[in-house]
């Protein structure tokens, strides 16, 4: 019973899921959703995710949306395959759950706004709003100050091993590495080393290879 | 070793945590944070949560922020106390994790904007922006359509029992019940019945009682 990922290779949320599958060394079927044609807003996709957002995930009769829930399902179902990706000790798990929330609630919203300004606006022929960029970069700086303090005392964000709390960050960090906002990461030595370590993971190279092979989708 | 919650009785995020503690029938110490004086943005609070947001949580040497991580820690640490609040079966847990993400990513952002327009703006002597309200209500309606479809086939949002996926919604739903946006819930019979069921829970009455006792904070 193959796991199926319906998504787009350029979507950060899709990449969170495919990266988890590569880290866990699991086979899966990838079904490219033609977002240019609006297929994510129509049937059959909206029966998988009524909110019309990629990715959607199928495993037998289980249908899931929301990338950060899908990654947790994959990891809990396959505890003995590939990279561990979670902590089982109660307090360590709590710290991991907290950093998963921090990624989603503190870092991702502002990082996504910067990606919109520098990358996606260009795709739509719109101009980058430099006043908005300044405001978003000031917010991201404050968030990254907290990360720098944390990473001074911890190799990975949730503890001594790479976990879902780190993994969830990778797609948006890769995105910002190709923009002027890269400087905010470079200025912070522990954040910078953490990013370099994660971006060098073999599983991430597989996500990038998949992107290269499908970039015309 | 008492669990300590540093928070504010009017904060939805604080209420998520105290509600979980009441559902699990656990003792805890509540430390009111004087937000009017900005205590959440200064030491000693920011050593508990460097993002300067309530609540923060302490259990011995474990310090946590992010309400949705704190609730999960409490539930995992006390599996045999009070209401169960989670599903242990892999697929049921996946569905619960998905609805926890949907609450946080789809419902809460727009519901919080409506609470800001109708409730918090008044506290600050600002006027409700009716154009913004119309836009937010249109978005919330679409989200609640998905909830109505789900609740037609499921007593609770993640399955046949009340879980954290339901619980996380309660504070913001209670908030909107006192605003004109209540109509969006009333118009949908299954959503409306779900809200009434949750708002009648004894543990929720305890959160409200705590609010009444501390409303001058």
Question: Can you characterise this structure?
Answer:
The structure is a homodimer of 217-residue chains. Chain A folds into two domains: 3-83, Glutaredoxin, CATH 3.40.30.10; 90-202, Glutathione S-transferase Yfyf (Class Pi), Chain A, domain 2, CATH 1.20.1050.10. Chain A is 58% helix and 8% strand. Chain A has helices spanning 12-23, 45-48, 67-77, 90-123, 130-153, 164-167, 170-177, 182-186, 189-199, 202-213; strands at residues 3-7, 28-32, 56-59, 62-65. In chain A, a hairpin with a 2-residue loop joins strand 3 and strand 4 (62-65). In chain A, helix 4 (90-123) runs parallel beside helix 7 (170-177). The mean pLDDT of chain A is 96. Chain A binds chain B through residues 50-51, 62, 64-66, 68-70, 72-73, 76-77, 90-91, 93-95, 97-98, 100-102, 104-106, 143, 146, 149, and chain B through 50-51, 62, 64-66, 68-70, 72-73, 76-77, 90-91, 93-95, 97-98, 100-102, 104-106, 143, 146, 149. Chains A, B: Belongs to the GST superfamily. Phi family. Chains A, B: This is glutathione transferase. Chains A, B: Its EC number is 2.5.1.18.
């Amino acid at each position: 019973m193959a796991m199926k990922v319906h998504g787009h290779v350029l979507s950060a949320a899709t990449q969170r899921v495919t990266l988890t599958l590569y880290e866990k060394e699991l086979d899966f079927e990838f079904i490219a959703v033609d977002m240019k044609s609006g297929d994510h807003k129509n049937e059959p996709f909206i029966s998988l995710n009524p909110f019309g957002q990629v990715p959607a995930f199928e495993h037998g009769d289980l249908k899931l949306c929301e990338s950060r829930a899908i990654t947790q399902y994959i990891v809990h179902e396959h505890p003995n395959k590939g990279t561990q990706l979670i902590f089982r000790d109660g307090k360590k798990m709590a710290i991991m759950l907290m950093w998963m929330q921090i990624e989603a609630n503190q870092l991702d919203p502002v990082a996504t706004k910067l990606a919109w300004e520098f990358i996606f606006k260009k795709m739509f022929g719109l101009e980058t709003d430099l006043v908005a960029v300044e405001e978003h970069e000031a917010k991201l700086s404050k968030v990254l100050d907290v990360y720098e303090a944390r990473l001074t005392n911890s190799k990975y964000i949730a503890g001594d091993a790479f976990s879902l709390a780190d993994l969830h960050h990778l797609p948006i960090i890769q995105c910002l590495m190709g923009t002027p906002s890269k400087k905010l990461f470079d200025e912070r030595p522990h954040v910078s080393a953490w990013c370099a370590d994660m971006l060098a993971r073999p599983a991430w190279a597989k996500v990038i290879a998949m992107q290269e092979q499908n970039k015309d989708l």
